[in-house]
Amino acid sequence: MTKWLVQKLIPDSNDTKKESVRLAYGTLGSVAGIVCNLFLFALKLTIGMMMHAMAITADALNNLSDCITCIVSLAGYHMAARPADKDHPFGHGRMEYVISFGASILICLVALELFKSSIASVFHPETITFSLPLFFILLASVLVKVWMAAFYRYLGKATDNTILLASSQDSRSDVLTTSVTLLSILLSLIWKNAPVDGIMGALVSILILKSGFSLAKEIVDRILGRPVDAQLTSRIEAMILAHPEALGVHDLIIHDYGPGKKIGSAHVELESTMSFVGAHQLADACEQEIRDQLHVDMTLHTDPVDTEDPQRQHYRQEILDLLKEMNAGITMHDFRIDHDEEKIILIFDLLVPFECPLSQQEIANRINSELKCDPASLETRITFDHAFTEGEPS
């Protein structure tokens, strides 16, 4: 059904990198969410009031908050789709994150209010009037949310849309919360004088709060900047290394300016004998390929490497062996040799994982102490780096 809706309602639905297509996907998801959640809110609120059930009323308000989130998201999609202008040269894509963060705060506020009401219901419980037809209506609402979770996930995966993927997660949480509500109705038949409804209502509100907090954390991580996924990193590296002149890739950085707007840079190692014009043409070709196929605006810096120097090969391999012995996941790049009148100078960068147990000073001391040469004739100049992407190339 989801694929049918997408194909019928979204022109050029396969071109998910196109801004107008992404907007259509987001609009479809938001409109469907508004309709479904508004219906579920009205249905559950009526049932909750008829049965005097706080857990059902809390679940109804959860659907209302989801509806509001969809409305806010719909506005966010249109704001994020606005083209770049003088004041925002990178576009308005991050507005999607700002809107999502506001929606997550609203969800948390609703959850706190529901928790307060549920705790009051624990101390002043009301008798729930059980009705089998109403029970099955709630069960049907669970199935609606199961479909919505799959629907959002399909749209989100197709467009790499964080709001739609978060909505899918939220719908899965709604399945759990409504299931808890159904359980509270059944338990109230067994323990009629126990404040089951209030306890379950409090549990539902905690689940809603957890969902809102998770969404807020996801958006804050994106705004602050987090590593780009390993799949994109690997594809960029593979496209560069597909050129036989490229010997290696490192220092890959991707800046996320919102869906569909990524800007990055990387260093490409080339044979030192390659001409300046040739290196420039290769960098241009790689940048264009990445832009056309992955929609990432890349700037490539070329590093010359002398692969024919036996002294360079000797010391490079010696340090690689030392790093392997350390077994700390450290990798090396930009290795080169310089000389002055008295010393051989080894210059290189080390990429150190954030979880590495060794300090930079310990790593440097270990390398300097174990190099097989006269310390007086050798100097190391080490630059320590951390990865900016997942699956950072070595």
UniProtKB/TrEMBL annotation:
The record's keywords, sorted A to Z, are:
Membrane, Transmembrane, Transmembrane helix, Transport
* Domain Cation efflux protein cytoplasmic residue range list: 232-304
Would you say which domain of life the source belongs to? Answer: Bacteria
Name all Cation efflux protein transmembrane domain ranges. Answer: 31-223
Gene Ontology MF terms in the entry: monoatomic cation transmembrane transporter activity
Transport is among the record's keywords: yes
Query: Which InterPro entries does this UniProt record tie to the protein?
Result: Cation_efflux, Cation_efflux_CTD, Cation_efflux_CTD_sf, Cation_efflux_TM, Cation_efflux_TMD_sf, CDF_Transporter
In which compartments does the protein localize? Answer: Membrane
Q: Which GO cellular component does the record give, naming just one? A: membrane
The residue ranges crossing the membrane are 23-43, 97-115, 135-155
Q: What is its main location?
A: membrane
NCBIfam families this protein is in?
A: CDF
Q: Which family does it belong to?
A: Belongs to the cation diffusion facilitator (CDF) transporter (TC 2.A.4) family.
Q: What is this protein called?
A: Cation diffusion facilitator family transporter
Species source reads: Grylomicrobium aquisgranensis
